[in-house]
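Table S4 entry, Dihydrodipicolinate synthase family protein.
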Amino acid sequence: MKDALTGILPVAPTPFHEDGRVDEDGMRRVIDCMIDQGVDAICILANYSEQFLLSDEERALLMRLSLEHVAGRVPMIVTISHFSTDIVTRRARDAQSMGASMVMMMPPYHGSGLFPAPQGIFEHFRAVNDAIGIPIMVQDAPLSGVPLSVDLLARLARELENVSYFKIECPFAADKLAALIEAAGDHIAGPFDGEEGATLLADLDAGATGSMTSAMFPDKIRPIIAEHRSGNLSAALAHWTTCLPLINHENRQCGLRATKTVFMEGGVIRSDAVRHPLKPMSDRTKTRLLELARDLDILALKWGK
């Protein structure tokens, strides 16, 4: 990428058939729908893609299928997180060789108490940095349980050339984004937020230049970012206020299941199945989700109809 990536970079869901098999045609349709939603890039194999429920063979299949199908229409970000430095480095090389524009990775973790000291985390990222020539996005997410201090994140940015994007989705993300930008300055090409945009406005105020949400309705969230970056703060607030009920319901009640349910309702995919031990949403939660989505007239609800 010649220019810094900004805007909306949603995570693609991984569609499954009812029997649990990967829906390859559904994956292609997911990508096409996301491009039609006006996304600035697509992220695959992330947590909201159920990456922790995919085999190595399925990961390889989905990466190749997705990168071939997108065919350069938008930049592609491949999530490569793993506890093993050797495995994460190999995943990074594979992603670059297949045409990924960027990789994203969490720090190494296993369970709530098994993760390296800060120097081990730094070396984990350094190994990937030295193996590839494309940008790396650090994902600072509560899921890992790994404390990533501003000092450590700033060191990664200053000392590792390819570590230039940061997705901050921990509690008090806005304050951390602001502190990181102050500490690392021009070494950061892309400060981003996550968590489905639940704290997006505060994070934009703190200096975020984009967001990595789910793929459910980036067509409605993208204007929040565009208006804010253009200096139209009142318009950004109005857009965010309109979207907030659906953002909140997705973030607090539905999780990764929301996009699949909306995509199935809109004819993008055939099934909203998730893999066990995850369970489907209750009818109550699903009904409210679809009501809120219809109220916003989001593209995904009519894309395949």
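Strands lie at 7-8, 42-44, 76-79, 102-105, 136-140, 163-168, 190-193, 210-211.
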